[in-house]
Amino acid sequence: MSGGVDSAVAAARMIDAGHDVVGVHLALSQSAATLRESARGCCTIEDAGDARRVADQLGIPFYVWDMASRFSRDVVDDFRAEYAAGRTPNPCLRCNEKIKFAALLDKALALGFDAVATGHYAQVVETTAPGGGVVRELHRAVDPAKDQSYVLGVLDAEQLARSFFPLGDTTKPQIREEAAARGFYVAKKPDSHDICFIADGDTRGWLTRELGEAPGEIVDTTGEVVGRHRGAFAYTVGQRRGLALSRPAPDGQPRYVVEVRPESNQVVVGTADLLGVNAITGEHARWCGPAPEGVAEVGAQVRAHGEEYPARAWAQDGRVEVRLEGRVRGVAPGQSVVLYEGTRVIGSATITAARLERSDAAAPVG
Length: 366
Prior knowledge:
Strand 15 and strand 16 (344-355) form a beta hairpin. The chain has a six-stranded antiparallel β-barrel with strand order 11-14-13-12-15-16. Strands 8-7-10-9 form a four-stranded mixed sheet, with no helix packed on it. The N and C termini lie far apart (45 Å). It is of the alpha+beta class. The protein has helices at residues 5-16, 45-58, 68-84, 91-110, 157-160, 172-181, 203-211; strands spanning 23-27, 62-66, 116-117, 122-128, 134-140, 163-164, 216-220, 225-229, 256-261, 266-270, 277-287, 296-301, 308-316, 319-328, 336-341, 344-355.
């Protein structure tokens, strides 16, 4: 229970469904602020108090579990290291993989609980396997504006079997109405945004404080110096704003970050046409069920609230290869590609490379 409206209604719905529910708030910050800053951040002392108030209204036990050290190691340190290496990570996926559906779920099972329920907007659909038995599948939420299946694409089949998402069949306005009808104080509480451990939303400032300033060159694709930066880690592929180039492009066209080179501390800029890619290689594959066999026709999504693109995907030599039907701009190493079959999540992989391939450099036959 984060202290927000979503987890409050999720807990209430689990009780209504007949489950024996215990509320757990995760203390993830080693120096939680007393009050939140507008709608940014989460897991503050104020949030813990809001969660406890809802638990009291529901008449359920409530605990605060301290996972700050684990969160710092598995999420914050990973985030810092990925940016230092020139990659663009998604900390919400890592938190779901390492904290909410690993550390939290493992502790819950060890204490005798059966499953973890959260306020994520996604659906679990139970189907019958060909050989009998029930299979739990992860699907998109009915509310596309709030769908969080992308950040849950790191769940494997065992974790999915122990997970409940009671809000997936409801829109956010309906959830707020339900919370108000139940008398929850948090019914109108604003959603948290951005990265929870960067409460002011200034990712570049946070990285600079953590990694220190490292001045270097901004160059074009010919190697000509066109600007200076204070740290290559603060840039990501596809970025246009904040480049402060001292030398405009000869043709006057806007320029974007097309590559970050941490080894030389250079940021490379180029025109928009250089951003389009149709081939993605991923590692650290996580399958929400059986891995696809051969070449699978899929939908591929590379951002949390981004568009889904028609593609083909297959596993090869421990990697996941994805070939998009068209070009996609701004795909950066470190992001995750999540694969779908209709509304069902197949799995995910961390992007290690993205490139433009000619049409005849296609997927293997199969």
